[in-house]
Amino acid sequence: MPGSATTPVVIGGWQLICAFGERVVALDPEDGSVRWHRDVFGQVLDHAATLGQRLVVVATEAGMVYTLAENGVAYDRWQLPESPTAPPSTDDERIYVNCEDGNTYALSDENESTTEFD
Length: 118
What we know:
By secondary structure, the protein is mainly beta. The chain has a domain of about 80 residues: Thrombin, subunit H, CATH 2.40.10.
């Protein structure tokens, strides 16, 4: 696969999620086989985050943030106003992404909002 591999995360307790370039991949931890893959817009930043036990969150250099379900289906997507400077982080309800404009954006699927923190 093109691109360097990102640090994997575990989702659902039974698969490893990592990315290669613009592709997010779920691997079987026992034999390394690909369970599913999803193409995204832009090079995926170093590592994904998890939101709960069933969603994985990735951010790309193009300023896109995606949540993907454990089966690879896209759950939500946001376009940030600037490129991220670091991979996303999460709490129980929100996704946080630091951007080149010096702001941290809080993303929520409940109201599809973006909140800006200075």
